[in-house]
Amino acid sequence: MVDASVEKSVKNYLKKLKEAGYGECYAVVYGSHATGSADSWSDIDILVVSPLFDREIKRGDINTLWRIAAETDSRIEPVPVGKIQYASDDGNALIELARRGGHIVKPAA
User: Fold this and answer.
1) Please, what are the averages of pLDDT over each run of 10 residues along the chain (109 residues)?
2) 3-state SS of the chain: helix, strand, coil percent to 5?
3) In whole angstroms, what is the distance from residue 42 CA to residue 31 CA?
4) pTM
5) What is the side-by-side strand order in the sheet with 26-30?
6) What is the dihedral angle through the alpha carbons of 67, 79, 24, 90, rounded to the nearest 10 degrees?
7) How far apart are CA 67 and CA 87, in angstroms?
């Protein structure tokens, strides 16, 4: 179970991504915050799932994800993933880890 403060940070991050032009994306929290083993030093590992990332992911996209993460909550460590890729990629261990034990966070309404 993801702590409410972590979920709030991730929702705020998604809001800022939308404002930056990344549309309706969602996040999948994986790692220690998803498994309940996080401590005060733990980062917040997330997949940022967006149809925009089904195309070629550009370096500028990665820079923007990290810049907004630093401005929102410096613990957030984003990994861009396409919506189709998240649904169908069966060869990516990170995506599989997130699918099996991750916590989906939708943007705030």
Assistant:
1) 92 96 93 92 96 93 97 97 95 94 90
2) 50, 20, 30
3) 9
4) 0.94
5) 76-82, 44-50, 26-30, 103-105
6) 170
7) 27
